[in-house]
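notes to self, project folder thing:

trying the whole complex as one job this time. last attempt i did each chain seperately and stitching them together was a nightmare. two parts in total, labels are on each line so i dont mix them up again. if this works i'll redo the older ones the same way
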Amino acid sequence: MAVSVKNLKIYYQTLRGQVQAVDNVSFDIKDHEILGMAGESGCGKSTFSNSLVLLKPPMKFMGGRVELDGESLPLADFRKMNEFRYKKISLIPQYAMNALNPTRKIGRMIAELLASRGVSFSKISRELDRRLKLVNLNRSVMKMYPFELSGGMRQRAVMVIATLLDPSLLLADEITSALDVSTQKAVAKMLVQFRDMDLVKSLVFVTHDISILYQIADRVLIMYAGKAVEIAPTKKITKEPLHPYTRLLISSLPDVGVKYSERRLAGIKGRPPGLLNPFPGCRFKERCPVRFEKCDKEPPLAEVSENHQVACWREVGNNG
Amino acid sequence: MVKLRNVTKVYRTGAFGGGKLKAVEDVSLSMEQGKVVSVIGESGSGKSTIGKMILRLISITEGEILVNDKDISKLKGKSLKEYYRTVQGVFQDPFSTYNPVFKADRVFDIIRAEYFSDMKAKKWREKVESSLQSVGMVPEQVLNKYPHQLSGGQLQRLLIARALLMDVDVLIADEIISMLDASTRVDVLNLLIDLKDRGLSILFITHDLSLGYYISDYVVILYRGSIAEMGYTDKVFYNPIHPYTRMLLTSVPRLDQKWEESEEELMETQEIAADSLEDRCKYYDRCHFAAESCGKPELKKVEEGHYTTCPRR
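result (full assembly):
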């Protein structure tokens, strides 16, 4: 097991109380696996990936454990986490395009970054060339400023930088959301290639777009209002989703080949609950079409069939 | 309704406006009443520029735009203000459209001050409420609220309601659902369809092919400012001809089928000097069927209601 997350709680401290952005989330990521993490805005998916890399106020570690290759991460200790940042855990941020320092040439920026991690640039220079070639970037980009690159090129440059030290865990946060469909496909395929070539051990691909997860992910985790509500292999979750939220989410997606005159899609009524003192019980209950009395108690994330975990009393009830 | 005839837009670029960028080149298309026309293209294809030109937010360099048989390209002052009674736009980001300091329904008051200053308060209130109802909202739930108290979908529908206060014939919807969550975007889409059924013409600008397919009667595929292919939705989606359209359609991530290991190289365009493509097809440098014989293409008819610049395949 490359990564195991146990009862992780990350809250935001605000003046009015604590926002329970990631609340009691547990899951595993296997070696050599791409885990897709999907959900709407505000479901805690970005909070999760940011917390592993840069947990700083107002973000607050409230409990739980994250193990990476058998080692427990000192999440609460900002300093100690430095051992892991970039070397073991790396992040491709949501706005990768803006993640580059505008006043530095790409090459110099990489050199500074490596120096700050105590790695010598000259040692890694060869590998860097190879990686750049892998993503179809010319070595000349090293001498360019970020503004000289197109959006897709910047994205690829950031991908190379993020994976330069072969991290065990790579977090890709909404990296394809701002891209055109053709570039999106190229970037997604590159990530798969990185995994296949063992440049990264495991990958968490965070997105709101389930259809792209269907293309590249091995398993999918659906988040809703700070909770993990369903985890299953990709095929299973898209073909036979069990949680009512997952079902509604998937049925609300327009696909090429669906026209309003043939099949009118429906959205999900209501909006996600506020996470400042959320109501007890299942957090989806207010919007759920199959709600019943038991939903006032919080449903556990339980295994209903092999590799398929759901947090819904309807499904858990079926198995006793 | 709306007709674009050989419309071209040239932006000046560079520090002193010395450089020139052709954002839209020789585009002709027409919208009929009660139909949704989708303009689909990647970033930089000029799709938003077309919408902005119809809205007269920017000037038109060449060509003309006819709305209800009137050329609107030279409108100014009062007549331009009157023009906005027939055409309105809704844009991508509902969160930054509102001033967070004021209540969200202030957008309605601005319309009243500008266009309906002689209307009685009570009658105005009724008008606002009926407009809100027509976009599927309960007035009590959204009036008197601040923007942060409403969801993105609600804010976006408020803006559509604002546009409808003017009894418009044409709505320009520029990427209006790309910032919304999956669970709420469908509601906004369905609202557009209801409005269309009531006779509104909609120009739906998007980069998302599946949304374009879901909603539109007619699609226009733009590439680098020129039309690559256009026609009735079914014809373009089921019988795509232009290599660019075909590439787009195979790149869309789908839930029912995986990306095949396509032989197509999907890297984005390398920046090349615009001059070298001056008398070439704009897709020349990315195209797999590019041949020496590829000249500057013209839009040709392939079947009834289906046009493309590339007759190949």
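what i see at first glance: Chain B has eleven helices and twelve strands.
need to look closer tmrw
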